[in-house]
Amino acid sequence: MSFKLKVLLCGPPKAEKSKLVNRFVQSKFDHEYKMTVGVDIFTKDVQIKNEKCTLSIWDIGSQEKFSFIRSTFYRGASCAIIVFDLKRETTWKDIQLWYDEIKSNAGEIPIAFVEKGNGENGEEKRNEFRNLVESTGNHYYETSSNGENMEEIFSSLALKTVDTIA
Question: Rounded to an integer, what distance in angstroms lies between the CA atom of residue 24 and that of residue 30?
Fold first, then answer.
């Protein structure tokens, strides 16, 4: 048996979502910022429970001018990742907006919250966010600005998703 999962990759502009997914899918890290217009789709196979699991990763453009079309990208989603940076002043508002948008357009799917940072974010703030995320039944992960732990993040989310649908 094999699985196919549609993974939404969401978050505010300049959260470096595209860089992180490129690191995971292509094992490369691009230091230039490139705005996603609409959606970019990547695929990667991972092993889940000794079975092949094909991830179709939808890197959703986050600029406000594309918000009118985003709801179409959520259809059929299996799970989602929200990438954020605690150093940004609007982080809490950004996360809440993305969480609400995913829930209203994709329903009750597993969501991973991924803090992209470099260790400079305050531990108190990080723990506050972690506790809040985990209280919703979702998972909180950390990655560096060069995309460390992305394999673990995608694999863990895929396993949780497969467990909910199998």
Answer: 12
pLDDT tens for 42-63 read 999 999 988 999 999 999 988 7
User: Which of 34-48, 118-132, 150-164 has the least mean pLDDT?
Assistant: 118-132
Contact 55, 46 (CB under 8 A): yes
Alpha carbon separation from 86 to 3, 40, 55, 98, 130 (Å, rounded): 33, 25, 27, 15, 11
Say what the pTM is: 0.88
The partner residues of 139 in beta bridges, in order of sequence, read 112
Is residue 145 within 8 Å of 84, Cβ to Cβ? no
| Closest to 70 (Cα-Cα) out of 43, 34, 44, 106 | 106
pLDDT in tens, 61-76: 887 777 778 889 999 9
Establish how many alpha carbons lie within 13 A of residue 149's alpha carbon, considering only the half-sphere containing its beta carbon.
16
3-class secondary structure, 126: helix
- Residue 88 amino acid letter: R
For the chain, which domains are there?
3-165 (3.40.50.300)
